[in-house]
Amino acid sequence: MTNYLRYLRALPSFIYGVLCFCAIIVWVLIAILTLPLYCLFRLFKFIQGKFVAYYNVGHLLAYKDVPFLHETENNRNFINGLFVINGKPDIDQIRQLLMERIILHCEEPTYIHMQQKIVKQYGRYIWQNEDNFDIKRHVVFYDGQSPCNEAELQDILSDLASSFIPDDISPWMFVLVPLNMEKEQFAACMRIHHSLGDGFALVGLIARIVDRKPELLRVQKPVATPCDKQKQVWKVVLTGPLALLSLALAHSTKNPFSAKVKLSGEKLFSWTKPVCMEKIKEIKTLTGTTVNDVLSACVAGALRRYLKSEGLDYPTDMQIVVTINTRSPRVLSQDSIPLENHSTGLLCSLPVGIIDPLQRIYETKHRMDDVKASSDWKIFGWIFDYILGTLPESIGRFSSYSLNRHCCLILSNVPGPLSELELNGSAIETVIAWPPLMSDTSMSMSVFSYAGKLRMSVMTDRAVICNPSKLTEMFIDEFDYMYAKAISCKPNS
């Protein structure tokens, strides 16, 4: 929720209702003026699609995948992942394993995209089979020196993320990096384009690759009655237009991390040491909040610490985008999660200015609850899934890139496997992921849990921050302080 909209909702109900009505009138007038042109363009797109089908050159990308192709050469929308695996890398066995588990013998139809490249023909983005698919082009060895510590591994990730993946193959790659550290291990660095799938889809992909099907967190959502669904629809219809109008008219958010020049294209990575999930749950229980509330408040505290240490003015509130899954529990409980995008983002204001960690948690919970109860994320998700991809390329790209006007960073919180995984009989010790810098956003943060532990990771551009490890260290400092404060306030302690 934008700060502007939060202030609007603080108005008396009558005034807020009048503003909602006025916003509906404004959008109806805009629709009357633009609908004929939009319908004409949709007819043109329909004809393009018929050409694609008639000449059998491939099949069309889903409209909700198209916005992820609104990117630049310096900033491609690739999700990056890191797996640290015990033992020596046997690239031939890993290639064979991937062929068997996700290429040749997968009953989920969306996994065919792992063998297809993205091309543009007849004005439409289409999936087209690779010419002579070769797994050796997707799973390769790192040709540089083995890293001796985490800092060197981070530099390698930076080099890989800034490198080019050929356009004539499906947009994904695994790079195996032997490690020269304390244990005999290797890293598998994954790059996969967001047009293939989102974070939850990639967790499903990992579940297919590993030796045994992992135990995943099943999010229980309350079952909505027909009456509840009708109320939700009416809420979106009546309040959604004002949410859109307020976002369109709002000024750019104050972003202390905005690049003074264009993004350089050189990505920088950092991650924290493992944080025990039991400690996070203990804070959650003591404060009567959720794990997401605790982690978001901790991120806000880390941001305040970092900006203060750099001598920068930090705002009282910092507006971010939090990605959320929109799949139903039924889909998440299936054996195979389709490889697709089925998520949206909600604008949320982090209380960076609150110093006391417990007060910050309560304020974060209040704001998160307010956002979840609103219709904003539903209408924004609907526009992202069904409108942006249908617009003319220039208008769709402009709309996508307006995101960086309204947020300072992107925060992703995807629950990973609950148990330790194995690949080809070897234990996977570490799993970390980073969402892309969508729309040239300054920074992306990921909170990813794995086997009872959690890490916060940061990806940014060198033009924004040249020392992201300082921010991840301050996340740990803030969490330790928050935990100590929560325990000290525990009854009978």
Write a brief caption for the model.
The protein has 493 residues and is α+β, with helices and mostly antiparallel strands. The chain contains 14 helices and 16 strands.
Structure description:
This protein has 493 residues and is an alpha+beta fold. The chain contains 14 helices and 16 strands. Strands 8, 9, 10, 11, 12, 15 and 16 form a seven-stranded mixed β-sheet that branches. Strand 6 and strand 7 form a beta hairpin. It is globular. Pfam families: WS_DGAT_C, WS_DGAT_cat. GO terms for molecular function: diacylglycerol O-acyltransferase activity; long-chain-alcohol O-fatty-acyltransferase activity.
List the helices and strands and how they pair.
Layout: H1 3-9, H2 13-54, E1 59-60, E2 78-86, H3 91-104, E3 116-121, E4 124-129, E5 139-141, H4 150-161, E6 172-178, E7 185-193, H5 199-209, H6 226-249, E8 267-271, E9 275-276, H7 277-287, H8 291-309, E10 318-325, H9 329-332, E11 343-350, H10 357-373, H11 376-386, H12 393-401, H13 403-406, E12 410-415, E13 421-423, E14 426-434, E15 443-450, E16 453-461, H14 468-488
Parallel strand pairs: 5-6, 10-12, 12-15
Antiparallel strand pairs: 1-4, 2-7, 2-14, 3-4, 6-7, 8-16, 9-16, 10-11, 13-14, 15-16
Please count the helical segments: 14
User: What is the CA-CA span between the terminal residues?
Assistant: 37 Å
Rounded to an integer, what's the Rg over CA atoms?
23 Å
Order of helices and strands: HHEEHEEEHEEHHEEHHEHEHHHHEEEEEH
Low-confidence stretches: none
Average residue pLDDT: 89
- Biggest sheet overview: 7 strands, mixed
Instruction: Give the tally of β-strands.
Output: 16
Category by helix and strand content: alpha+beta
Shape: globular
Strand content is 15-25%
Portion of residues within helices: 40-55%
